[in-house]
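pipeline/complex-builder :: batch 7 item 3
reading input block
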Amino acid sequence: MSEEYITIDAARLENYAFEMLVGAGVPMDRAALVSRSLVEANLRGVDSHGVQLLNFYIEHMKQGCMDLHTSGSIVTESGGCMTYDAENGIGQVISDICCDHAIRLAKENGIALVTVRNSNHFGAAAFWSQKIARAGLIGMTMCNATPLVPPWQGKEPRFGTNPICMALPGAPETGWLLDMATTTVAMGKIFKANFSGEPTIPAGWAFDSEGTPTTDTQKAIKGMPMPLGGYKGSGLAFMVEILVAVLSGGAMSTEVGGVRIRTRPMRCGQMFLGIDVERYMPIEVFNARMEQLIGLVKATPAAPGYEEVLVAGEPEWRHARHRRLHGVPLSKGVWENLARTASIVQAKPPAVESQKL
Amino acid sequence: MSEEYITIDAARLENYAFEMLVGAGVPMDRAALVSRSLVEANLRGVDSHGVQLLNFYIEHMKQGCMDLHTSGSIVTESGGCMTYDAENGIGQVISDICCDHAIRLAKENGIALVTVRNSNHFGAAAFWSQKIARAGLIGMTMCNATPLVPPWQGKEPRFGTNPICMALPGAPETGWLLDMATTTVAMGKIFKANFSGEPTIPAGWAFDSEGTPTTDTQKAIKGMPMPLGGYKGSGLAFMVEILVAVLSGGAMSTEVGGVRIRTRPMRCGQMFLGIDVERYMPIEVFNARMEQLIGLVKATPAAPGYEEVLVAGEPEWRHARHRRLHGVPLSKGVWENLARTASIVQAKPPAVESQKL
């Protein structure tokens, strides 16, 4: 099934996002940060965390569900530990500040963990781990999210997709970068199977609405995503919830709202961890060891049906290289939704040409 | 299929393990620690990490592959960061020392990460996270292990089962405890399916020896375990490898030996992380919040086919309660193997009665 797409240069897309956010009342420096974080996700091929989120963000902003001006505040700071209250600020603004705290505290103490409450959607976790990594640290990011996923053996949602993300210092285009939801696949893959007319999805992806595992695409889209690999994914989601919500004193599990829930603040929790590699070994040695390990893993003979072994982050860097040169493709549907949102905030969509992909 | 079992009181089993280790030349305080760590795993129902490991441990010791007397040494210590060289010491001895360092450094700095190289098998990760947790900290433990698992899309082993483990402060019998390999299931479950005469195993458990996913039990036992949920499990195993092997300066991937490899040291890497909860909130508040979250998750209505929702660690605590009262069941095969090892080190098996389970 073919679908109509537009393709747009990343810088123009970022500027469009910026103008929409400014139109929604976001101060200019903050609008620049949010638009950069979203377009960065599009560049990496993670379109679920790209500019299509603006429709939800701006709706939340217009409803008065988010404080566009607060910078949040430190609740406690002690050694490498900090609790931060986002005060319902913009997720990216809070995350930027909290990554700076994590970097500062990790440089002072060798390792630091900043846990954040009362925050909002921060885009893709990778953006923040990468910020920490650029300071010469191992960066880890986690967050909770709208409850969509049942605990194993349960049939009602209790956890979000609660991602685990780690980025490493070193050249940004040659490294390793993990950013994974603790579900087998994102809901987006199930929606895509439906859109593509696939009657079935692989086992292990989803439950129906009654909590029974299903491979029926139609039942899955009305159902719930499955925790990664079953009970272990449930355990990982719970681990994330502890570090971002129990420890932060923030909203837990069903107390968390969501970007698609219009009437109340999201109140999600986030966690930023920095590890100062230089306390363990010179960064050049660490990078050389990573290069050796990546080389060893990539040299694994490919299993039947595959051409090569990829390491975490590699597909996204390939996307980024291609999209920086050739522009970001967005489905016609996403583009038109953005245009509707743009009209509400008096922003003007840039001219683009549509094409079949 | 029924199997012959013996049942033995935990204290007697621990004493038997202790005598075997002393017979193998392990100093008494060290033998006590190792035997306690193994029997603790048996009590929790994690028999793969219980006394059956003694057969391998003692073989390694007799081959001179392990240094029974070293306590290892600090390579670097700075802020909350430490690199430790196990100097091929007993895994449990090194882990006990490194947990103490993690506790001390976390109390001083709020959070601490001790990474260890040149170590040996440390039993179950849970034992060490729980030790850190008893000091009032969130405890995390990871390790690498014998390469058995192919990276996703590859067909030769590059990673061990590389577990992720987290334990929490609070009453030991009421909490939450995650200890999971980053494969879908342990090899033991595949061996058990074979032993029980099951012709097939669930999809997602294993590859055949050529790296093709299989549900054929016979092909699976000659094959390789699958990373948890596919490519994401591969990413998690790699994350563990970075924290325990790249960062420690130790053996990586195929450089790691194993308890079943007789001719050379294991050289595995380990990591112990402590987070001082009191830097974030009073421990009583943290515990009350955990109780609330566990209650919320356990109150989830059960999915079809299940009676209740369990949280991580709950099945193991149930085992422990039962086995403390009624003894530890061990298969006749394991018991006889132990007796053979005992005869090599001049230890005398305690009298037990066999029964059908």
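note: Residues 140 and 322 of chain B are 26 Å apart (CA to CA).
queue -> next item
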